[in-house]
Write a structure and sequence with these properties.
single chain; 6-stranded mixed β-sheet; alpha/beta; 66% helix
Length: 622
């Protein structure tokens, strides 16, 4: 290929690349603008007074200083130069001071009295919106890293980012008003001054974008080191690590790594700081010094002193105004380069979270049963969204009313997944689940869940009263709470009875409980709730064998009016079950009563004897 053709080809490729980059930037800016408008509409919907008040009062707050630096200064110097009367200056100053006082009164009232309350209202609206959306989303959404990251980002950053959108918008409007106001004054004095200002802005803007890029690059480079810093902070203040730090040499090890991380931070940030210093120096020294401080001073000074075409007031006003406009335009371009895209990106993730669609379709059936009815799994198979491996395969089982059913098997056998399908936290991939002959997908989800009480292995207690933790609402029936706690064998006497606050997040006198005590409170929830079905996933995992045996017998008697499905790795619990289902690799491999499965001498019998031997050996050693 001839050299000239090769050069033309390369030039064409470069042009295409530049055009592609240009289109991408335009698209990014367009998306960011849409995101800003989206968030401003959100703020306007929930706190309209904050939106319009913030924008109006900031312009009002800056107006006196804009006028004083240019218009008032020009007037005072012109009058003083003419020597036409001190009274004129005095009258104007009195009017200006009154204007400033009234303005400050209005602005201070808004910023110090109204704005803090409006900001809290905005934050409340954001959190409430996020809570409602998260509560509506399918449980399977938490398995999606993108959704979960968007949720975490929304919960941790949207307050700051929403407020950032508002303050950025306010800044650009204030600067634009300032540029237009001062620009009009400068044009009336000498339009040629705008040439100096334009050249200054042309030079400052690309330097500002380079500074913005260095800021972004620095943030990206520091992100993994910031993440390490957060980890070290958690290690030093969380109770989870307190014992190991005190009883082992881990403290010195962590401190050494923390010190190294600080050194790494300094090493990483140094070249970016050096580059920023160079750019800031060029930005401040070249355009501002040469074009504004020197160029306009010489140009307007010549016209004021030599040719007498303008007065000294015009000279001072133009000098101040030119510097102010240059700084304002630079602020706008810097904001556009840094905050505009950054905040827009966060709002984009918030929008994506809010626009996420639920996959589990809500039905219309609102039946709530007073007594247990038959549950059936009909050839049910299931695989998690986005995967090909089936977790459950061809499950067929029928649970008669009032039966106590145990699901057993090794970790990963599919036991918890089976109960999650029954609770309709996920929908089956194949087959169907019915209650009283009706497909559970026909139910209104909220109503459907009223038929179940569930306790999971990873249950949670809340920073609320004991009664509220049992009833799971803010109006517990005291006697009903006591009965439920009794059935769960929770006998601990608390200072304020069922009104005692649990945990210490909201009350320094909150009660701390052991793992077993907390688990009994969680189990009590199943007895408090009037429903026909109870699901217990490892209900006694935090209890010792004696306490477990006592609780299981109490639960068996107390749950006579319910169908109970429980998962347990301790097979001593399953002895009292009416039916036991042994799962392996997502399939039911054995089923029957304890006696039947022991007689079968299969995998259940092997597991049971293995655990019994373990307890026997432990007792003999004791």
């Amino acid at each position: 290929m001839p050299k000239c053709s090769l050069f033309r080809l390369r030039a064409t490729v470069r042009r295409c690349q530049m055009m592609s980059k240009g289109k991408n930037k335009i698209k990014e800016n367009s998306n960011a603008l849409k995101n800003y408008i989206y968030m401003l509409k959100f703020i306007g919907k929930h706190t309209p007074y904050m939106l319009f008040g913030y924008l109006f009062f900031d312009v009002l707050a800056n107006l006196p200083w804009t006028l004083s630096n240019v218009v008032l200064l020009k007037y005072i110097i012109d009058v003083a130069t003419e020597g036409t009367g001190y009274e004129r200056i005095l009258y104007v100053l009195i009017i200006f001071v009154l204007f400033v006082v009234v303005t400050n009164l209005c602005v201070t009232t808004f910023y110090e009295f109204s704005l803090p309350k409006q900001r809290e209202k905005l934050y409340f609206s954001i959190y409430k919106t996020i809570y409602k959306k998260a509560a509506k989303m399918d449980y399977e959404a938490y398995d999606n890293p993108e959704y979960y990251n968007d949720l975490v980002l929304a919960m941790t950053s949207m307050n700051e980012r929403a407020y950032g959108v508002l303050t950025n918008t306010q800044d650009i409007i204030t600067n634009i008003v300032g540029v237009l106001t001062i620009g009009a004054v400068i044009i009336s004095i000498d339009p040629v001054c705008l040439v100096f200002i334009f050249l200054c802005v042309v030079i400052m803007t690309p330097i500002g974008r380079l500074i913005a890029k260095v800021n972004v690059d620095r943030t990206e480079a520091m992100t993994p080191l910031d993440r390490k810093n957060l980890y070290f902070s958690r290690v030093f203040y969380l109770q989870d690590y307190a014992k190991e730090l005190r009883l082992s040499g881990a403290g010195k090890m962590v401190e050494k790594r923390y010190n190294q991380n600080i050194l790494d931070r300094i090493t990483t940030i140094s070249p970016y700081l050096r580059r920023q210093w160079q750019l800031y120096f060029c930005q401040e020294s070249l355009p501002m010094t040469l074009l504004i401080y020197l160029g306009i001073t010489l140009f307007m000074g010549y016209k004021a002193i030599v040719t007498k075409e303008v007065g000294m007031g015009d000279f001072a006003a133009t000098f101040n105004g030119a510097a102010s406009i240059s700084n304002s335009v630079f602020a706008i371009t810097s904001w556009f380069a840094i905050s505009f895209r950054e905040n827009g990106l966060y709002v984009e993730k918030f929008k994506r979270f809010m626009n996420a669609k639920e996959k589990i379709i809500n039905g219309t059936d609102k039946t709530v049963y007073e007594k247990p009815v038959t549950i059936k799994f009909e050839n049910v198979s299931f695989k998690y969204p986005g995967t090909e491996k089936y977790i459950l395969k061809n499950i067929d089982l029928e649970i008669s009313p009032y039966k106590k059913i145990a699901l057993v098997g090794y970790n990963g056998a599919g036991k918890t997944t089976l109960t999650n399908l029954l609770l309709r936290l996920y929908d089956v991939t194949d087959g169907r689940i019915t209650i009283d002959g009706k497909d559970i997908r026909d139910w209104d989800i909220k109503t459907y869940h009223e038929n179940f009480a569930a306790v999971f292995q990873d249950f949670s207690l809340f920073g609320a009263t004991l009664g509220e933790n049992v009833s799971m609402n803010d109006a517990p029936e005291d006697e009903k709470v006591r009965v439920a706690l009794g059935k769960a064998t929770f006998n601990k006497e608390l200072p304020d009875g069922t009104d005692s606050i649990l945990l210490r997040e909201f009350d320094d006198n909150g009660v701390s409980l052991s793992g077993g005590e907390a688990q009994k409170i969680a189990i009590a929830r199943t007895f408090y709730k009037d429903c026909p079905f109870a699901i217990l996933d490892e209900p006694s995992a935090n209890l010792d064998p004696v306490a477990e045996y006592s609780l299981n017998h109490s639960m068996a008697k107390a749950a006579d009016d319910k169908t109970v499905i429980f998962i347990s790795h301790r097979l001593s619990t399953t002895v009292m079950a009416d039916e036991i289902y042994m799962l392996e690799n997502g399939e039911i491999i054995e089923k029957g009563s304890h006696e039947e499965l022991m007689a079968l001498d299969g995998k259940y019998a092997y597991m049971f004897r293995l655990q019994a031997e373990k307890y026997s050996n432990h007792q003999n050693k004791g």
